[in-house]
Design brief:
The protein is α/β, with parallel strands linked by helices. The chain contains ten helices and 21 strands. The structure holds flavin-adenine dinucleotide (FAD).
Length: 379
């Protein structure tokens, strides 16, 4: 096997992999025995979990961004030139500028994207916090909100499994401290017959919602939004009125994945232990873009990235496989504006959320700042 590693996607997964490889392959890089190249879409690196705090005015936008060139090890050439075609048979990636990159090992880390357009009326009628523009508009809407009906509407698939619960509990606390919760009704909708895909989280969330008078509708698969009438309707035939609609939009993987015929919906069929594209021995897949039925989360991407780094280094230096990914995920969960809990789980151990505390909330806030060290591989 040769020595050129190409990473497509300079988000969380791609960056952690590139920096991890540089840390372990310093000698080979210095001698020019290997090369690591990255293709991305932007000169900025966005810390997406920070978007959760934007609607409440609890984070400065400057904290969300760093220059990608500064987060990425300087030994990795970074091209802001998105991949437009990935040919895994010819081992070539073509970019928007028409350049062709050949590789010996490929890492696909192109993440996921919001698909608001999949639901008629959603873009016009809803608020969301899953991108910066949406989060800013939601902040303005919350500033003006003076009581009424709020719907937190969850669509699947989406990244960050716990964000819908977090935003619901944070909204409750925020509106209570603003003094308008007594004239506000919050309703949470979820597409399956419980409050969360992960059963222990659903069981944990139900009493927490009941205690605060938060209503819920399960089996609510969103069909359409009527922005003029301010209603949202499900495929199951339920129509709810709203004054403020907060949606967790459905997601797809990157366009380049579907355009290259690598996976329906942009999700790449991936071996859940090896993190290799199914049918390939030289194409690793990391983060949101895999089709593995586990949470699409930064921590998933991080634990996967660590596994891929170990395996790539072992394959390139010793010709052997190092270890399998065990499905590990760890998520802090905000349970209000000043308390939090956490969950960890893997393929065999289900999540088990503990009692919320102020200290865990502070840990989450601390991690938000430590992320930049973590992405550089310093933590
Ligand atoms: C509001 C919010 C809150 C969240 N909270 C948490 C949390 O508390 N904990 C947690 O673990 N996770 C959380 N997440 C999820 C986490 O941010 C993602 O799961 C994580 O970023 C996935 O990493 P990734 O590298 O797969 O994708 P990304 O970080 O999205 O990176 C993908 C990169 O690929 C690039 N790309 C796309 N197409 C191309 C192309 N054709 N060519 C080149 N590059 C391309 C994109 O521009 C992007 O930079 C949250 C997300 C949001 C939105």
């Amino acid at each position: 096997m040769g020595n050129r590693i190409l990473i497509v996607g300079g988000g969380l997964a791609g960056t952690i992999i590139a920096n991890g490889l540089c840390r372990q392959l310093g000698t080979q890089l210095r001698k020019g025995d290997i090369s690591i190249t990255m293709l991305g879409t932007s000169d900025k690196h966005l810390y997406q979990p920070g978007l959760l705090y934007v609607p409440f005015g609890k984070i400065r936008e400057t904290e969300l961004f760093r220059d990608q060139r500064k987060v990425l090890d300087k030994r990795v050439p970074y091209h802001i030139d998105p991949a437009t075609n990935i040919d895994v048979d010819a081992k070539k990636v073509t970019t928007q500028s028409g350049k062709v990159h050949e590789y010996d090992y490929l890492v696909i880390a192109t993440g996921s994207r919001l698909m608001l357009q999949n639901i008629p009326g959603m873009e016009e009628g809803a608020h969301w916090f899953y991108d910066l523009d949406g989060a800013r508009k939601m902040r303005d809407a919350l500033n003006e909100f003076d009581g009424g009906k709020i719907i937190v509407n969850v669509n699947v698939p989406h990244k960050c499994p716990v964000a819908p619960l977090e935003i619901t509990f944070m909204l409750y606390d925020y509106l209570a401290s603003k003094g308008v919760m007594d004239k506000t009704e919050i309703t949470y909708t979820y597409p399956i017959g419980r409050l969360h895909a992960l059963e222990p989280l659903a069981e944990w969330a139900k009493p927490a919602m009941d205690q605060n008078g938060i209503k819920y509708e399960t089996f609510f698969n969103t069909k359409e939004v009527d922005p003029a009438a301010k209603t949202i309707t499900s495929e199951e035939g339920e129509t709810l009125d709203y004054d403020l609609l907060v949606t967790i939009p459905p997601h797809n993987g990157a366009e380049v994945i579907t355009d290259s015929g690598l996976g329906d919906g942009g999700w790449v069929p991936t071996d859940r232990n090896k993190l290799l594209r199914e049918g390939s021995s030289d194409v690793f897949v990391c983060g949101d873009t895999t089709n593995i039925p586990i949470s699409k989360a930064g921590s998933t991407a991080h634990f996967e990235a660590d596994t891929i780094v170990d395996n790539l280094v072992s394959l390139m230096t010793e010709g052997r496989w190092a270890r399998d990914y065990d499905g590990k995920v760890f998520c802090f969960v905000e349970t209000g504006m000043s308390t939090g809990t956490y969950v960890w789980f893997n393929y065999t151990t289900p999540p088990n959320p503990g009692a919320p505390s102020q200290m865990i909330h502070w840990f989450k806030l601390a991690y938000n700042r430590l992320y930049w060290l973590s992405a550089r591989g310093l933590l």
